[in-house]
Amino acid sequence: MKGFNYLRNVATLKMDTDKCIGCGRCLEVCPHQVFALNGGKAAFIDFDSCMECGACVNNCPTAALHVDAGVGCAAGLITEWLRDHGLLGASGKCC
Amino acid sequence: MPRISTALTWADRLGSWKVRWGMGRLRYIVPPGLYAIGKPGPDSPVLVTANYKMTYDHVRSVLGGRDCWLLIMETYGINVWCAAGKGTFGTEELIRRINVSGLAAVVDHRRLILPILGAVGVAAHKVTEQTGFNIRYAAIRARDIPGYLDNGSMTTAAMREITFTTRERVVLIPVELAAALLPTAIVTAVMFLVLAALQDSSTGLTAVYGYLGAVLAGTAVVPLFLPWLPGRSFAFKGVLTGVVWTIVFFVTAGGSGWSPLITGAAFLTFPAISAFYALNFTGCTPFTSRSGVRKEMRIALPLMACALLAAICVALTGKIL
Chain B closest CA to A73's CA: distance in Å? Predict the structure, then answer.
């Protein structure tokens, strides 16, 4: 995204190029233009802009993509950590 | 089929203002279902959106003078992008909504227009498989829908671009302030009582003033100046604004009369508070990643805890000596 950069080399985005059929859906749904079509296959052109939203994974018809998507706000991650360590009940929501 | 207006009233705008301040934000809902805008027929386009009333208001307000169908999903009053992330603006709900509304009997075509950000929750090929409807992800912003409809349903690069303008950042500040209200009230009350008991009420008030400024440095100043604050880490940006605040606090609260230990405690505490609130703003942005926030938190949270602990030790040492 123009003018805004987050941490580098942290995104968990992975692609199995063998499964890619070049349909271009990932280009269509990515909010940060991480992908481009290169010789009939999708390729990363801006990996560090990936915010791990999961839109590409969801819309890939051949399941060629993988990302560790989920709650990404600090408050949500703290809540998740507390729940995983049994310090907070299952209820209680942020949003 | 209910026909809805595309004109927003002052009541609608007041409603939006209230939820921007966090008031009734989880109860601002419209019933899901199929709605008519203008005089749509079997050939009219079908737009899909969430049942958060602010979203619904925003979408319908750009469709003035048009004939189209609006299919509203049950997202429990959450906006498109967040609901998509949670799965409620999702494949199953869309399939269900198409079936329950009888959409296939209302329109002759088999095309649905979705917001791009809905793709996080909707698997287009699966919806097509189950319902026969094809999905086009049109644009990021509702205000680009008319352009999309008029240009032959082409998503331009501009329609695909996410922005985070100053205005878009500033409207997020009130809800962050509202969320910080209760914890801040509790902390400042305790802070005041402890310091008033250990020293005097004037010290208590001064400390509260410093704390409030630190909260604002994180919740308001960082969002406002986000693209211009150095560093990629939000916690780091919060430290910067926190240090600047502490300097302002020092100057305006008569810091020259304090012992170096008390000054040290202030410079440890307030940047840590500011950094915490700045880190929390990651949840409001359209570009931070979960892995990035996790990495930041692993480093920043222990550092903040240490800073606060050190501040308490330093202040106590100052008191004892």
Answer: 4
Counting every residue written for chain A, the total comes to 95
B164:A1 CB<8 A: yes
- Pairwise CB contact (< 8 Å): B297 & A77: yes
Q: Which two tokens stand for residue B124?
A: 């287009």
Residues of B in contact with A58 (CB under 8 A): 91, 119-123
Give the tens place of pLDDT for each residue, B85-97: 989 999 999 999 9
Correct CATH for A14-69 of 3.50.50.60, 3.40.50.150, 3.30.70.20, 3.40.50.880: 3.30.70.20
Strand partners, B147: none
Per-residue pLDDT tens over the stretch B159-217: 999 999 999 999 999 999 999 999 999 999 999 998 898 888 998 999 999 999 999 99
Please tell me which of the candidates B82, B91, B287 has its beta carbon nearest to residue A1: B287
Chain B (78-107) residues lying within 8 Å, Cβ to Cβ, of chain A: 78, 82, 84-85, 91
Across the range A33-46, mean pLDDT stands at 95
